[in-house]
Amino acid sequence: MQSTTTASNDPTVPVMGYPGAEFYVLHIIGLVSLGLSLSLSIFTQVSLMKKERTVFTRPIGERLVFYLTISDLGYCLNHIIDHTWMLAISYHPPDIPCAIFASILNLFVFSQSLIVVFTAFNAFMMVVKEIKVELGKYDWKLLLYAYGIPFSISLGVAISNHWGPSGAWCFLDKRKPGEKVLSIIVAAAFITVFFSNIINYGLVWMKIKRVSASMATTTSQAKYHRTAKVMMLFVAVYIAQWWAYIGYAIHGFVEVQPVFWVAVVSTFSNLGGLFNFITYTFVKKNQQNVRDSSSDEGQTVERRTKSYRRY
Fold first, then answer.
1. Which residues form the G-protein coupled receptors family 2 profile domain (predicted)?
2. Is residue 145 part of a domain?
């Protein structure tokens, strides 16, 4: 009977930074940033659900924040267990738990990325094409796209048995022959998504500035532009969260990344809850400004109506 090698006693997958202080610094930084992110994601969720129990009646900005915080909660809880396990035993978890952690990590990281891709695409369609993207009842089209694709990828890699110890935490198994190819595919996918979002961001802002400068903005266009600016905020915080990983991935095409790069990635990538909270704050403020503006317009119309009646 063939014996099964576990990650915890496999010398072919050395644990990054161990033995040495870098190992503890890497995982403690990860746990601190994940703890902060988790706390703010919970706070954002509670704030969103305080007034209404269903999220589907909320404006698109709040719904997107809700979906992003759901992904961040799953990401944080999963990654906290992974980091804690490695700190406790100074090795990767055994094969099966490690594969589960890696699969869940991929699911929630890619779901966040795809939600932001949608926001950039939606803003582009509203401003450049002046077309509203329909999400379907209960946003089923968005949810199927944002979670169905990452789930299929996680399942496919799991079936091929390529989830496992990566050195820093559980992700792509470095013992497998296809690990390098899969790592390149993942890095290329992230880089493509990242720069696609930047391009969409630039196109939308140029169109908004050009139309605004012409002083010919219709009421419909103004509404689309206001919504698009909120959508672009999601792209901006996505760039702030994942810029370090993009630099890390590009560096990886040249040489093996140092522990310092991994620590920087672990810090910024793990702060999704903080960035989502910032987004939610701006979305809430924007909606309040819209309500105040609508209220002012209503009061102006009412005053004019009364003056006409007196006349």
1. 23-284
2. yes
